[in-house]
């Protein structure tokens, strides 16, 4: 494999911290190193890359256009590099110690308990403290080793590794659809229909796609809840159109017809769920082991969901798009 550029990965971390703090002094404090070391590493990085990353004067520090692009790539490079290091370290010793984990309630008790039980059985020297949370928490400020949530993050102090995509589909109660003045055949019509929003992490935009066409929805939110079971009850009561996961949670309702897909030929963009943890814990064998376990349980859950989709005669039943 040909090596075209040689530069210090630690210098990328320094550069990222300077970009985020917009100050050499603040970056040095956060990194726990002298300001002169920060300046020297930045100068060496610019020399190695052959480009100017920062503009400095007596009043402010700004990032060049190319520097902004380098920063965006640097966040991903650091995550991958530490993933490799963590993988190597995890192969050398058995994970041990306590891991504090925050999982959002929408992930579900079943998933959290299966991941936790599998992890504890597999690694007898480990201890685990899982908390289900109803809002986004910060792994550093709130005292967690690992946090599950939407990502990825543009923050070089945190690592975000995707665990799974939560696939969603639009749906409503049949009696709600029947009350509409006209059938919903285009995404734009949803902007005039009451919407049940899954509100973990605050309001967000929904985008639907069909082939190469994309449409961003901005419907009037009638109700918001950070739990899919609550949202499902709102939908069943005919209070509006909502977005629900295709896995398991609506299987019975779809089979019975008490919930029906809306705009079935348009797919909602999936919600990516990441495992987020501080950069300084990148080498933790506990975190690497927990990540692998979390991914394994998702694979098993998908297989379970697939089994539920099949009828007794082996024919598929509707679970949404």
UniProtKB/TrEMBL annotation:
Matching InterPro entries: LysR-type_TF_proteobact-type, LysR_HTH_N, LysR_subst-bd, WH-like_DNA-bd_sf, WH_DNA-bd_sf
Sequence ranges assigned to domain HTH lysR-type in this UniProt record: 7-64
Pfam families to which the protein is assigned, alphabetical: HTH_1, LysR_substrate
Example GO BP: DNA-templated transcription
Any GO MF annotation of the entry: DNA-binding transcription factor activity
Keywords of this entry: DNA-binding, Transcription, Transcription regulation
Family of this protein: Belongs to the LysR transcriptional regulatory family.
Identification of the protein by name: LysR family transcriptional regulator
Source species of the chain: Mycobacterium intermedium
């Amino acid at each position: 494999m040909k090596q075209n550029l040689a530069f210090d990965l630690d210098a990328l971390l320094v550069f990222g911290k300077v970009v985020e703090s917009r100050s050499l002094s603040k970056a040095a404090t956060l990194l726990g190193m002298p300001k002169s070391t920060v300046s020297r590493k930045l100068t060496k990085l610019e020399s190695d890359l052959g480009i100017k990353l920062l503009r400095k004067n007596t009043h402010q520090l700004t990032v060049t256009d190319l520097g902004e692009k380098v920063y965006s790539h640097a966040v991903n490079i650091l995550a991958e590099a530490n993933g490799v290091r963590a993988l190597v370290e995890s192969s050398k010793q058995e994970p041990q110690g306590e891991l504090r984990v925050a999982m959002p309630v929408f992930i579900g008790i079943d998933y959290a308990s299966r991941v936790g039980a599998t992890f504890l059985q597999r690694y007898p020297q480990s201890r685990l403290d899982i908390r289900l949370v109803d809002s986004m928490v910060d792994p550093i400020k709130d005292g967690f080793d690992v946090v599950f949530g939407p990502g990825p993050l543009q923050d070089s102090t945190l690592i975000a590794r995707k665990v799974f995509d939560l696939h969603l589909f639009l749906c409503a109660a049949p009696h709600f659809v029947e009350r509409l003045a006209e059938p919903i055949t285009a995404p734009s019509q949803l902007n005039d229909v009451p919407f049940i929003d899954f509100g973990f992490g605050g309001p967000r935009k929904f985008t639907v796609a069909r082939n190469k066409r994309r449409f961003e929805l901005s419907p009037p939110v009638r109700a918001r809840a950070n739990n899919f079971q609550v949202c499902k009850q709102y939908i069943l009561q005919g209070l509006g159109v909502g977005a629900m996961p295709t896995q398991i949670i609506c299987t019975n309702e779809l089979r019975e017809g008490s919930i029906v897909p809306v705009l079935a030929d348009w797919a909602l963009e999936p919600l990516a769920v990441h495992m987020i943890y501080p950069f300084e814990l990148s080498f933790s064998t506990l975190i690497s082991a927990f990540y692998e376990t979390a991914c394994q349980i998702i694979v098993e859950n998908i297989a379970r969901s697939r089994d539920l989709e099949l009828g007794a005669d082996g024919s598929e039943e509707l679970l949404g798009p």
